[in-house]
Specification:
The protein is mainly alpha-helical. The chain is built from 7 helices and 3 strands; from the N terminus they run H-H-E-H-H-E-E-H-H-H. 62% of the residues lie in helices and 11% in strands. A hairpin with a 2-residue loop joins strand 2 and strand 3. Helix 1 (3-10) packs parallel to helix 5 and helix 2 packs across helix 6 (90-111). It starts with a helix and ends in a 6-residue tail after the last helix.
């Protein structure tokens, strides 16, 4: 992966937020849409571009399409994300809020009785 590919992703606020959320663990596309308040079309376009750059991967688990960062996470991506999570700016604060929202969703899913993949909620049922 080239440095320019990483910066293409983190220069776009929506993609940066996706990377931040996936850095905390895999998520179903529907949860990304909910957290980012994005349409399915816009989310699909963003995810396809990031997948093409080799930053994320998708895996179908039953009826769920689960996205995750490709591991190991590139050092440049990791250091930039770490810096932004500690910085004090509007976009940086949004990254923190997204992580809080993500945790609430995962916690709620863990309490539900549906069939979300273990890669999202561990051994508990969700989605």
């Amino acid at each position: 992966m080239e440095a320019s590919d990483i910066y293409k992703c983190i220069a776009d606020p929506q993609r940066l937020r996706i990377i931040n959320l996936l850095n905390a663990g895999p998520l179903c596309v529907c949860h990304l849409q909910d957290i980012l308040d994005a349409t399915q079309v816009k989310m699909s376009k963003q995810l396809a571009g990031m997948k093409q750059l080799g930053i994320i991967e998708a895996k179908r688990e039953g009826t769920w399409m689960i996205y995750s960062l490709i591991l190991p996470i590139d050092g440049l991506l990791k250091s930039n994300l770490s810096y932004l999570l500690k910085a004090d700016c509007v976009e940086c604060n949004q990254l923190q809020q997204d992580l809080i929202t993500r945790q609430k969703i995962v916690d709620a899913l863990a309490q539900s009785t549906s069939d979300c993949p273990k890669s999202v909620c561990g051994d508990t049922a969700c989605c």
